[in-house]
């Protein structure tokens, strides 16, 4: 391999290794975090085996002279592996600080549509398996193929860190109160208290019908009659009550 090609290969491999090592360091800072998908912890072994593979490849490229054309066969996969590893490191870095924005929301924003952690790790593992089959690394990679395949199987079993529709709609609630959400077209009725809830369509209530004018005159005449007639003892209290009601309604 020409000196320039060897340098470029070593540079790509070295940047991939540094990104994976930083990812592992940032993962250690996330121990105990409860607001992240399980993949952030469970992918640890898969990252470890692919990191070990790239370190072996780096040692080999430093100590051996590869034939011409070897770099042309591996430079594409090496570049993609570097990009995926760098993206993975950036996402983990975003998750480390404690901030007002929940980690799950930060992860959704950082990952976008094509940056889920499990997909990035699987992509790097597949690239490593592809490189292991190249003539440039075939012999030195024999001991790594089985562990790379197991790492790929492990990360493939982890539940998705983001559902397909979570990039469009997401709701977070970290307090002790109710989290009431309605993003559909229908009505939503919520009762978070201890009393009863009655749901129904809106009704229009009219004012009660007004009594005819003669009703007032009739009542006033009855009041005057009760006031002019000397009440008997048993009627006295009822008469006073009638007079009091009339004054309350019509005034003095």
Gyration radius, rounded? 40 Å
* Largest β-sheet summary: none
Low-confidence stretches: 165-175, 181-185
Structural class: mainly alpha
What's the count of strands?
0
Beta-strand residue fraction: under 5%
Number of domains: 2
Number of helices: 9
What does this protein look like?
The protein has 252 residues and is mostly helical. It folds into two domains: 3-166; 213-250, no CATH class. Helix content is 60%, strand content 0%. The protein has nine helices and no strands. It is elongated.
TL;DR of this structure?
With 252 residues, the protein is mainly alpha-helical. 60% of the residues lie in helices and 0% in strands.
Name some characteristics of this structure.
252 residues, 2 domains, 9 helices, 60% helix, elongated, NACHT-NTPase and P-loop NTPases N-terminal domain-containing protein
Layout of helices and strands, plus pairs?
Blueprint: H1 3-29, H2 39-42, H3 44-63, H4 70-95, H5 103-111, H6 117-132, H7 142-156, H8 213-228, H9 233-250
